[in-house]
């Protein structure tokens, strides 16, 4: 199979918009293992979509049960971890990350933390914003330094209207 076998998901604890729901249902294939963070909101919606399509699901729950989705025995539940630890675990287990944030990038957001971490470890990310705009973030190749003493920097490259898996087929 040319598509990534393990796909990760991160999203808002708030309700997804209709556009985000439609996007997830459209882009999620039925032949991947889906990893998510087990929170109410976007994670529980992705869980339902993944199960409905016959995907295996790996759940990375947070230690704080207050915002945890209901237990589903059909999925593989890993031991609970602190939010940022489990966010990194999700990214470290996958070849592609889907994200549905509740708005533009900001620092005090677990969803955006997970997106930034994915880019930093070279995992491609497809982001669907509340209005349905889809953006792809991929790590940029390191820039060559014009001075041997200045460090190279890597910033994510961004493109819009990305098709999930288009380069992987």
UniProtKB/TrEMBL annotation:
Question: Where on the tree of life does the source sit, at the highest rank?
Answer: Bacteria
Q: Where is this region: Disordered?
A: 134-169
Q: Where is the composition biased (Low complexity)?
A: 143-159
Q: What is this protein called?
A: Uncharacterized protein
Basic and acidic residues composition bias: residue spans = 160-169
């Amino acid at each position: 199979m040319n598509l990534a076998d393990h796909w990760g998901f991160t999203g808002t604890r708030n309700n997804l918009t209709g556009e985000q729901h439609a996007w997830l249902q459209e882009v999620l294939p039925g032949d991947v293992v889906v990893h998510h963070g087990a929170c109410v909101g976007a994670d529980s919606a992705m869980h339902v979509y993944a199960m409905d399509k016959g995907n295996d699901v790996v759940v990375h729950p947070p230690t704080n049960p207050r915002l945890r989705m209901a237990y589903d025995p059909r999925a593989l539940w890993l031991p609970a971890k602190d939010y940022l630890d489990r966010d990194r675990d999700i990214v470290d287990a996958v070849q592609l990350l889907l994200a549905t944030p509740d708005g533009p990038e900001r620092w005090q957001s677990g969803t955006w933390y997970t997106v930034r971490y994915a880019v930093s470890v070279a995992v491609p990310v497809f982001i669907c914003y509340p209005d349905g705009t889809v953006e792809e973030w991929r790590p940029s190749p390191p820039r060559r330094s014009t001075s041997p003493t200045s460090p190279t920097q890597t910033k994510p490259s961004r493109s819009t209207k990305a098709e999930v898996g288009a380069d992987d087929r």
